[in-house]
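Entry 14. Structure prediction run on the chain below.
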Amino acid sequence: MDTKSLMIATATNLFQQKGYKSVDLSEILKACNVTKGALYHHFPNGKEELLIACLHALNDTITMEIEGVFSEHLSTKEATQSMINTLIHNLEVEGTISGYTFSSIVSEMATVSEPVHKACSALYENIQDIFYTKLENEGFGNESASAIALLMTASIEGAMMLCLTKKSTDPLKTIARLLPSLLTKNSLST
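Output returned:
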């Protein structure tokens, strides 16, 4: 792994574990075993530029994984169940799902710059778009597909944060049990 990729992967992990504001550059440098000069060579604008690179990397990874799951299954219901079951399995086996959620980073972004807000927003928009497209392909109307995609994104992301907070898979198991009932064409009257 090249130095830039190492810094992005390490910083992403640290930001997810501790939050953006709680991680200082010296911690990232030490974890990567790189100099401040190397960091500023790749990220001339410092920590915030590194954060944006982390958010873009998360966006790419999460989008690719969700697209993969959704392309493997005929229905949104099946794809959603598979995705949630994978998250539950990862939490039970690995003790974390941090590679799949970015809420821990996004939650403290109210005081950060517009480029960071845009990068965070793009992450959620990509996820919702995958859900929306699958629902629309199944015959859901535009408004219903949009509303359900938003609900799915908020429910799954919220459940992941609750799982990490409670150190329990129960929130995801609850979502896995309840979300499928929303994924029928008669479930929403919008």
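The mean pLDDT is 87.
Filed with the rest of this week's runs.
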